[in-house]
Amino acid sequence: MNKNAYLEGSAIPSSLTEAQWQSAVVATLASLNDKPGALLPILHEIQGQLGYVPPESIELIAKALNQSSAEIYGVISFYHQFRTTPVGAHQVEICRAESCQSMGGRALEAHAKASLGVDYHQTTSDGEVTLEPVYCLGNCACSPSIRIDDQTYARVTPEQFDALMEGLKIRSLEVQNG
Ligand code: FES
User: Fold this and answer.
1) What's the per-residue H, E or C state across 136-163?
2) What is the atom index within ligand 1 of the atom nearest the CA of 95?
3) ω before 13 within 30° of 0 (cis)?
4) Is the torsion defined by CA of 108, 151, 83, 17 positive or negative?
């Protein structure tokens, strides 16, 4: 398989067929599993190709490295750069740095997690939003701040957060309907 077959033009699919992820995982294991300390390079390579580490691939990785699935999962959970769900169409980052936290950021992040139904580093079930923490958006005077894709929003209340998420959904529908 072309190394970046799924990355061309940001065309990482929101979900992969078994044949797609298996082919990438098997090729990665064949090329890297003999190297010392192979697990991290393997996980980076799989995520680089597929956009995430499919949970179904963990058993294959474990077998190839002669480790347990729990050990592999433990490493994935420890390093926050690894994800086991596809990246969403939009990245929503909530500032967790001091100024934002002191101005309602904690309540905002609790609201965002509850309303989207995901924790940090996860993607909503409709594939629209990946939620990430960020540590200062350089917008501290207008806390709490969030960033949606490349746009920063200031003094965001839970109600405004919901309106922004609704706006993302409407834009997605407009794109789908042409
Ligand atoms: S602390 Fe949140 S923008 Fe700086």
Assistant:
1) CCCCHHHCCCEEECCEEECCCCHHHHHH
2) 2
3) no
4) positive
65 CA to middle of ligand 1, Å? 42
The atom of ligand 1 lying closest to the CA of 144 is 2
Mean pLDDT of 117-125: 90
CB 21 within 8 A of CB 55: no
Choose between 7 and 134: higher pLDDT: 134
Pocket flag, ligand 1, residue 95 (CB < 6 Å): yes
**Measured between alpha carbons, how far is 85 from 76 in angstroms, rounded to an integer?**
12
Q: What pLDDT is stored for residue 15 in this prediction?
A: 62
For the cut 50, the answer to whether the pLDDT of residue 33 exceeds it is yes
pLDDT of residue 12: 43
As given in the structure block, the two tokens for residue 50 are: 């597929």
Out of 94, 134, 143, give the residue to mutate to test ligand 1, the one with the largest number of ligand atoms within 8 Å of its CB. 143
Handedness of CA 79, 83, 87, 90 (dihedral sign): negative
